[in-house]
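Example record used in the benchmark description.
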Amino acid sequence: MAEQQFNAPERAQYGIRRTPSGIHKVTEHQDPGYTIVGNHLTQHRSLSCLAIGLAAHIQSLPEGAPVDIRTLARRFPEGRDRIGAALRELEANGYLERVRRRTDDGRVVTLTISYNNPQATRARRAREAAEQAKRRTAVARPCPSPDAARTPTPAPNPPRVRTSPRPVRTEAPRVRAEPTPPPPEPRTRAHHPPAAALLANLRRDDPRLLLSVRDIQRLTPAVAAWLERGAAPDAVRSALTTGLPATLRHPAALLAHRLTESLPPPLPTAPPSAPGAPVPPPLQTCDGCDRAFRAPAPGRCRDCRRSVAAERSPGLHGRG
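Model output (structure tokens):
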């Protein structure tokens, strides 16, 4: 019987092997210029593909880049309506937050805040709130009760001296009326928990602004005066922490100087509104440009409505 001959080489020589179906990844080293995105976003069950991609694009942008609907519509082929719906999805799931702020010249703008991990941010803020509550409890000193303050300390018994016996006089015991406790002191600037908490949290902005309990008690009335004159806590914090010198030896003295020299004037009293005066509509965020405007219902601002009407008018004339 003749020998068996193989017409083709073995399969291993050609590199042929059975490969399972599914995704295969080719991972290469990347130079600086990449963004870390969590699987909680890329594999989110409730977000659409457009919302996930838009969130990844926003996280890759530098700080201060515009992310309004008009800018994103110029960058991507999707229209403003789809991009606006995707932004609302991200806002509903905690990845975006739009806050209205008033500028120095009186304009109202919309500030967009992006969160790369909303759950971790909420947990961190809860821990910080618990720590601040513990600090406020530790800073507050318990006030002694008025009865304990007025109770005299019993004097030590004097030594007995033998004297000649004297006639003992019996007198009726005198009933002493106990003094009525004074009324509780009204809340003053020295006991202002928001002002004391603001001073205690300055070290989060700059570790050099670590104040002692005595310094916080001394500066609390000055910060309370700022808050009573309508200054926002963020404005007070910015005035105290902006432009600090490179060498800071006496932080409490510097803060006291700034609180005294930069004290804002009190807000003017607004004239009383006449009865029956119309109430302005609430502020809304424009779906086209993210600008704040007043309207009874959400929608587009006046400029966006004009631009949409201008875009549609050539098509209407052409059909006619």
